[in-house]
């Protein structure tokens, strides 16, 4: 008992780092939690930052959540095709597991200014969505029900 309580007094009064404190506190908290989760067993199985969307038919890795982009203010869009079927698609800046086919066309284009081709799974070749291109660039619109969350 050497009176450490008295020594913390001035430190508590001195708080120039106040605005930074919340940020630092969160980071140190997250880091502190990591060793505990590692100690439980397999690391990162539940908290993997690199989860991927995979093809529901063959399991091939198709796209990363990190590549989800917004088009016209939303990353998810619902469309009816000419036959009246509803598609819910998500927009990706890229889709590593897809290949495209067909000639670019603007017929029934859902996104103004873009032409489209078919986008297929690179593993089983099922059509997973569409590739959209314009003069400024392009993106993939992939049908959500054909994507599963892989590890
Ligand atoms: Zn597939």
How would you portray this structure in words?
The protein has 151 residues and is an alpha+beta fold. It has one domain (24-35, 49-150): Metal Binding Protein, Guanine Nucleotide Exchange Factor, Chain A, CATH 2.170.150. Helix content is 20%, strand content 34%. It has 2 helices and 9 strands, in the order ααβββββββββ. The chain has helices at residues 4-13, 21-40, and strands spanning 53-55, 61-63, 76-80, 86-92, 98-105, 115-121, 127-134, 137-143, 147-149. The strands form 2 sheets. Strands 3-4-8-7-6-5 form a 6-stranded antiparallel beta sheet, with no helix packed on it. Strands 2-1-9 form a 3-stranded antiparallel beta sheet, with no helix packed on it. Strand 1 and strand 2 form a beta hairpin. The chain binds zinc ion. Zinc ion (ZN) binds next to loops.
